[in-house]
Amino acid sequence: MYSKLRVYKSGIHLGEERIVAGNCNSGMINFSGCHLACNFCYTPETSVEQQGQDLSTGEFTDLLDELVVRGARNLNFISPSHVWAVAQPAARRIKAKYGRRLPLILKISGYERQGLLSSMAALGDVFVPDFKVWSPEVARSLNLPEDYGVTAQNAVRLLIQTHGAPQYSR
Ligand code: SF4
Protein backbone atom coordinates (compact mmCIF):
# COMPACT_ATOMS: atom_id res chain seq x y z
CA MET A 1 0.00 0.00 0.00
CA TYR A 2 1.46 3.33 -1.07
CA SER A 3 1.46 6.29 1.34
CA LYS A 4 3.06 8.62 -1.20
CA LEU A 5 3.03 8.92 -4.95
CA ARG A 6 5.89 9.84 -7.25
CA VAL A 7 5.44 12.58 -9.85
CA TYR A 8 7.82 12.46 -12.79
CA LYS A 9 6.64 15.68 -14.44
CA SER A 10 3.79 18.13 -14.08
CA GLY A 11 2.83 21.36 -15.76
CA ILE A 12 0.61 23.07 -18.27
CA HIS A 13 0.63 20.90 -21.38
CA LEU A 14 -0.20 22.76 -24.58
CA GLY A 15 0.37 19.83 -26.95
CA GLU A 16 -2.22 17.29 -25.87
CA GLU A 17 -4.47 15.49 -28.35
CA ARG A 18 -7.29 17.83 -29.34
CA ILE A 19 -9.96 15.62 -27.83
CA VAL A 20 -8.17 15.73 -24.45
CA ALA A 21 -6.82 19.27 -24.47
CA GLY A 22 -10.24 20.89 -24.98
CA ASN A 23 -9.56 24.60 -25.03
CA CYS A 24 -5.86 24.07 -24.25
CA ASN A 25 -3.96 24.36 -20.99
CA SER A 26 -4.14 20.80 -19.81
CA GLY A 27 -2.93 20.36 -16.23
CA MET A 28 -0.73 17.32 -16.79
CA ILE A 29 0.66 15.07 -14.11
CA ASN A 30 2.84 12.19 -15.25
CA PHE A 31 3.24 9.61 -12.47
CA SER A 32 6.31 7.46 -12.01
CA GLY A 33 6.36 3.72 -11.25
CA CYS A 34 3.77 2.32 -13.67
CA HIS A 35 2.32 -1.01 -12.52
CA LEU A 36 3.13 -2.64 -15.87
CA ALA A 37 6.53 -3.21 -17.41
CA CYS A 38 5.91 -3.28 -21.16
CA ASN A 39 9.15 -3.91 -22.98
CA PHE A 40 8.19 -1.26 -25.55
CA CYS A 41 7.60 1.44 -22.94
CA TYR A 42 8.22 4.86 -24.46
CA THR A 43 8.79 6.47 -21.06
CA PRO A 44 11.37 4.27 -19.31
CA GLU A 45 12.22 7.27 -17.12
CA THR A 46 8.96 6.60 -15.31
CA SER A 47 8.43 2.83 -15.62
CA VAL A 48 12.00 1.51 -15.30
CA GLU A 49 14.08 4.26 -13.70
CA GLN A 50 11.16 5.56 -11.66
CA GLN A 51 12.46 9.12 -11.62
CA GLY A 52 10.54 11.84 -9.85
CA GLN A 53 9.57 13.42 -6.59
CA ASP A 54 7.64 11.71 -3.81
CA LEU A 55 4.55 13.59 -2.61
CA SER A 56 1.99 12.94 0.11
CA THR A 57 -1.71 13.40 -0.58
CA GLY A 58 -1.53 16.89 0.97
CA GLU A 59 1.46 17.91 -1.14
CA PHE A 60 -0.20 16.49 -4.23
CA THR A 61 -3.36 18.48 -3.49
CA ASP A 62 -1.24 21.65 -3.37
CA LEU A 63 0.35 20.73 -6.71
CA LEU A 64 -3.07 20.32 -8.33
CA ASP A 65 -4.26 23.62 -6.92
CA GLU A 66 -1.13 25.33 -8.22
CA LEU A 67 -1.80 23.98 -11.73
CA VAL A 68 -5.30 25.45 -11.64
CA VAL A 69 -3.96 28.82 -10.47
CA ARG A 70 -1.47 28.69 -13.36
CA GLY A 71 -4.35 28.27 -15.82
CA ALA A 72 -5.07 24.56 -16.12
CA ARG A 73 -8.49 23.94 -17.68
CA ASN A 74 -8.50 20.28 -16.75
CA LEU A 75 -6.49 17.80 -14.70
CA ASN A 76 -4.80 15.18 -16.80
CA PHE A 77 -3.40 12.17 -14.89
CA ILE A 78 -1.04 9.95 -16.87
CA SER A 79 -0.50 6.42 -15.42
CA PRO A 80 -2.16 7.00 -12.03
CA SER A 81 -3.45 3.45 -11.43
CA HIS A 82 -0.81 2.16 -8.99
CA VAL A 83 -1.07 5.29 -6.78
CA TRP A 84 -4.80 5.90 -7.10
CA ALA A 85 -5.31 5.41 -3.33
CA VAL A 86 -3.05 8.43 -2.69
CA ALA A 87 -4.08 10.53 -5.71
CA GLN A 88 -7.84 10.01 -5.40
CA PRO A 89 -8.40 12.01 -2.15
CA ALA A 90 -6.44 14.93 -3.61
CA ALA A 91 -8.39 14.86 -6.87
CA ARG A 92 -11.63 14.65 -4.90
CA ARG A 93 -10.74 17.76 -2.87
CA ILE A 94 -9.83 19.77 -5.96
CA LYS A 95 -12.97 18.72 -7.79
CA ALA A 96 -15.06 19.68 -4.78
CA LYS A 97 -13.42 23.11 -4.90
CA TYR A 98 -13.72 23.76 -8.65
CA GLY A 99 -16.65 21.55 -9.66
CA ARG A 100 -17.43 20.39 -13.17
CA ARG A 101 -15.56 23.24 -14.80
CA LEU A 102 -12.39 21.27 -14.05
CA PRO A 103 -12.76 17.85 -15.71
CA LEU A 104 -10.50 15.02 -14.59
CA ILE A 105 -8.89 13.04 -17.42
CA LEU A 106 -7.43 9.64 -16.60
CA LYS A 107 -4.99 8.03 -19.01
CA ILE A 108 -4.76 4.42 -17.93
CA SER A 109 -3.10 1.20 -19.06
CA GLY A 110 -6.22 -0.94 -19.54
CA TYR A 111 -4.90 -3.34 -16.92
CA GLU A 112 -7.08 -2.08 -14.08
CA ARG A 113 -9.22 -4.49 -12.08
CA GLN A 114 -12.92 -3.77 -11.77
CA GLY A 115 -12.79 -2.49 -8.16
CA LEU A 116 -10.05 0.02 -8.93
CA LEU A 117 -11.71 1.04 -12.17
CA SER A 118 -15.07 1.55 -10.47
CA SER A 119 -13.42 3.93 -8.02
CA MET A 120 -11.79 5.79 -10.91
CA ALA A 121 -15.04 5.88 -12.88
CA ALA A 122 -16.82 7.48 -9.93
CA LEU A 123 -14.48 10.49 -10.07
CA GLY A 124 -13.02 10.70 -13.57
CA ASP A 125 -14.80 12.57 -16.35
CA VAL A 126 -12.80 11.48 -19.39
CA PHE A 127 -10.88 8.25 -19.84
CA VAL A 128 -8.15 7.43 -22.30
CA PRO A 129 -7.59 3.69 -21.79
CA ASP A 130 -4.93 1.76 -23.65
CA PHE A 131 -5.82 -1.48 -25.38
CA LYS A 132 -2.40 -2.84 -26.18
CA VAL A 133 -2.81 -6.48 -27.23
CA TRP A 134 -5.41 -9.22 -27.22
CA SER A 135 -3.66 -12.60 -27.27
CA PRO A 136 -1.97 -14.05 -24.17
CA GLU A 137 1.02 -15.14 -26.28
CA VAL A 138 1.67 -11.67 -27.61
CA ALA A 139 1.13 -10.20 -24.16
CA ARG A 140 3.74 -12.55 -22.70
CA SER A 141 6.23 -11.66 -25.43
CA LEU A 142 5.86 -7.99 -24.52
CA ASN A 143 6.31 -8.59 -20.78
CA LEU A 144 2.62 -7.93 -20.14
CA PRO A 145 0.41 -10.16 -17.95
CA GLU A 146 -1.15 -13.01 -19.92
CA ASP A 147 -4.65 -11.85 -18.99
CA TYR A 148 -4.01 -8.32 -20.26
CA GLY A 149 -6.44 -8.64 -23.18
CA VAL A 150 -9.38 -9.94 -21.12
CA THR A 151 -8.74 -7.41 -18.35
CA ALA A 152 -8.55 -4.52 -20.81
CA GLN A 153 -11.74 -5.70 -22.54
CA ASN A 154 -13.55 -5.69 -19.19
CA ALA A 155 -12.11 -2.27 -18.40
CA VAL A 156 -13.34 -0.75 -21.66
CA ARG A 157 -16.74 -2.39 -21.16
CA LEU A 158 -17.10 -0.86 -17.70
CA LEU A 159 -16.09 2.58 -18.99
CA ILE A 160 -18.67 2.38 -21.78
CA GLN A 161 -21.32 1.46 -19.21
CA THR A 162 -20.40 4.36 -16.93
CA HIS A 163 -19.28 7.04 -19.41
CA GLY A 164 -20.97 6.22 -22.70
CA ALA A 165 -19.75 5.34 -26.16
CA PRO A 166 -16.14 6.15 -27.04
CA GLN A 167 -15.08 9.13 -29.08
CA TYR A 168 -12.11 8.97 -31.40
CA SER A 169 -9.73 11.76 -32.28
CA ARG A 170 -8.41 12.03 -35.81
S1 SF4 B 1 1.60 0.90 -19.45
FE1 SF4 B 1 2.51 2.66 -20.52
S2 SF4 B 1 3.82 3.68 -18.98
FE2 SF4 B 1 3.34 1.60 -18.21
S3 SF4 B 1 5.10 0.35 -18.85
FE3 SF4 B 1 3.49 0.15 -20.41
S4 SF4 B 1 3.96 1.72 -21.98
FE4 SF4 B 1 5.14 2.22 -20.10
Q: How would you summarize the topology of this molecule?
A:
Elements: E1 5-13, H1 18-21, E2 26-31, H2 44-47, E3 53-55, H3 57-69, E4 74-78, H4 84-98, E5 104-108, H5 114-123, E6 126-129, H6 136-141, H7 148-163
Parallel strand pairs: 2-4, 4-5, 5-6
Antiparallel strand pairs: 1-2, 1-3
Helix pairs in contact: 3-4, 5-7
The structure holds iron/sulfur cluster.
Please report the first level of CATH classification, the CATH class.
Answer: Alpha Beta
Report how far the terminal alpha carbons are from each other. Answer: 39 Å
Q: Mind telling me the C-alpha Rg?
A: 16 Å
User: What is the number of helical segments per DSSP (H or I, 4+ residues)?
Assistant: 7
Proper CATH architecture:
Alpha-Beta Barrel
pLDDT averaged residue by residue: 93
Low-confidence stretches: none
Neighbour order of strands in the largest sheet: 3-1-2-4-5-6
- The overall strand count is 6
User: Any idea what the CATH superfamily is called?
Assistant: Aldolase class I
The largest sheet, given as strand count, sense and whether it forms a barrel, is: 6 strands, mixed
What is the strand content? 15-25%
Helix content: 40-55%
Global structural class: alpha/beta
Q: Write the element-wise H/E pattern from the N-terminal end onward.
A: EHEHEHEHEHEHH
> How many domains is the backbone divided into?
1
List each distinct ligand once. iron/sulfur cluster
